Amino acid sequence: MARLRVDFAGPHVSVQDAGRPGRMRFGVPGSGPLDRRAFTAANLALGNPAGAAGVEVSMGGLRLTCLEGELGYAVAGGGFILEHLGKRGAWSVATLRAGETLAIRPGPWGSWCCLAFAGRLQAPEWLGAQATHALSGLGGGRLAAGQVWQVDDARPVLPRAIPCPVAARPRHDIRVTLGPQTRFFAPETVETLLTAPWKVTEAWDRMGMRLAGPRIAPEAALDMASEPILRGSVQVAGDGVPSVLLADHQTTGGYPKIATVLDCELEALVQLRPRDPLRFHAVTPEAAVQIARAQAARDARYFKALEQETPRC
Amino acid sequence: MRLFPLCTPVAEHGLLIEFGERIDAAIHARVLALDAALAANPFQGFHEAIPAYASLMIRFDPRLTDHAAVAAHARGLIDRPFSTPEGTPREVLVCYEDAPDLPAVAQAVGLSPEAVIAAHLAGDYRVFMYGFAPGYAYLAGVPQALQMPRKPAAVRGVPAGAVLIAGPQCLVSTLTMPTGWWVIGRSPTRILTGEADRPFLFDVGDRVRFRRIAEGAWPG
Fold it and tell me: What integer pLDDT is reported at residue A222 of this predicted model?
């Protein structure tokens, strides 16, 4: 058993696991980590199941002190900086021992970082998952200074690096399919979505990220009956400002969705930072499926290699 | 002219099937029928279906299937003769005392507060969809005489368990939230039940009646 004290936690630092898929019909989004690939990588690097509970760290950063025990950990996602017995980059595995402190803070790139533990993090479950749902706070919960978290069956691990795949990087060119509610927008407005230089703003959280750029207001009056929303929906409010909805999104809503970011591109999108530029590129649904399959195959190879490199305990 | 049902691909893993554009019982019945047919006849790679007022979103695994195959499967189910699921009757308790907007609603619709209460209790509600937040079940069926546009600005900090109305819709909130809907009562009935085997009180399509309780009858 190991115990960790939170010395500092920035906003939006929360417990996550594989999430709670399949309950959108009850108003419950999937939640889980924003960078699912990095989260899986951190867990696999420790020999954990891919969806074991860990901590998602925002650009606000996190500092933990180990009060008791010896706890192996893995950090993956973004170009974050770790301070623990010296300074090094994320994408690494090490062991935190009683009296030692681990700090995770933003580095040269990326917005989200995942911390996995060699052991079982004790955190509340909601609907069978420890992932935190930001709006309600249900699930494992947010981290805050002064808390003490317990990790059962904690074990030490040998230090090593985790390979950082190319796909882990933020990307400024993001592929979408148009719709499903393009009918509320003039053709020129759809063209503007696809040609304008967009920027990430400071208005971001686990529910979504608002973008800055030209106004792309819907044409028709907004009397649309609420329609289902997916993670990746590009929703445009009445003021013409688009937002990309993320892991803790509402499940239905009455604002039209001009486009939808490919699910397999969301990791590349969420690692962008405020003021970073981005552009949207429309692809056909058939192309979207091909892109997703190719990415899934690359991820599967990466995960398999990670598992093979992970020492058995 | 949009011809329904309409299948629209969404990213690599979604297909939106629209049966219309309005909040309408007959359109919603078709959403429910396809939802039930899919649950009984899932396809390889089916993840989940999300019903809304006039549409059903189908999520699938793009490694195992694609939009065209899912659309063909759905159209096959839509073309079958369907019966709308009956919906289980549910009861929700409501206390109309200490309801901040009841006097304003009464004044706006030209009824006494007691007549507003009677009209609300007389409504035959149906769960049309969930949305906004976990357990926020949108109940259609507010009687015409009580239909009010939402407030121009949201009121902050409305506590969980508020019984809210706006237009033809009613809902019982599950979280403390800002809302622009009218608070006409409070309910001790929990939509998020906390029970592992049945965490949500309603399924989409269930029928709901409200039963009045006095302030003193509040459980606990």
Answer: 61
Q: What does the pLDDT look like over A147-159, one tens digit per residue?
A: 999 999 999 999 9
**Percentage, residues of chain B above pLDDT 70:** 99
φ/ψ (deg, to 5) at B200? -120, 135
A165 Cα to chain B: minimum distance (Å): 21
pLDDT band at B23 (very low <50, low <70, confident <90, very high): confident
Cis ω on the peptide bond leading into residue A180 (within 30° of 0)? yes
**Cβ pairs bridging A and B (under 8 Å):** 130
What's this model's pTM, rounded to 2 decimal places?
0.95
Same domain, B149 and B168: yes
B55 contacts in chain A (CB < 8 Å): 227-228
Alpha helices in A11-92 (DSSP H): 36-44
Domain total of chain B: 2
Residues A105 and A192 in one domain: no
As a dihedral over the C-alpha atoms of residue B179, residue B183, residue B189, residue B195, rounded to 10 degrees, the angle is 0
Instruction: Judge whether A300 is closer than 8 Å to chain B, CB to CB.
Output: no
Burial A238-269 (b: 16+ CB within 10 A, else e): eeebbbbbbbbbbbbbbbbbbbbbbbbbbbbb
DSSP state of A59: T
Query: Closest to B10 (Cβ–Cβ): which among A21, A224, A230?
Result: A230
pLDDT band, residue B81 (cuts 50/70/90): confident
For residue A30, give its domain range: 2-166
pLDDT of residue A184: 92
Q: Give which of B29, B62, B13 is closest to A180, Cα–Cα.
A: B13
- Asked which of B38, B61, B79 is the last residue of a domain, the reply is B79
Residue B132 sits at φ, ψ, to 5 deg, of 70, -60
Burial class (CB in 10 A: 0-12, 13-18, 19+), B73: buried
Whether the pLDDT of residue A221 is over 80: the answer is no
Q: In this structure, are residues B167 and B86 in contact, taking their beta carbons and an 8 Å threshold?
A: no
pLDDT tens string A52-97: 999 999 999 999 999 999 999 999 999 999 999 999 889 999 999 9
Handedness of CA B136, B139, B143, B148 (dihedral sign): positive
Q: Look at residue A242 and give its three-state secondary structure.
A: strand
Q: From CA A53, how far away is CA A312, in angstroms rounded?
A: 20
CATH number at residue A225: 2.40.100.10
Mapped onto helix, strand or coil, the DSSP state of residue B69 is: helix
Chain B residues touching A258 at Cβ < 8 A: none
By Cβ distance, the residue of A27, A286, A291 closest to B134 is: A27
Residue with tokens 């950990």: A73
Q: Could you tell me if B106 and B148 lie in one domain? A: yes
Instruction: Identify the residue with better confidence: B80 or A193.
Output: A193
| Burial A31-52, CB ≥16 within 10 A → b, else e | bbbbbbbbbbbbbbbbbbebbb
Measured CA distances, A13 to A81, A284, B78 (Å): 16, 36, 44
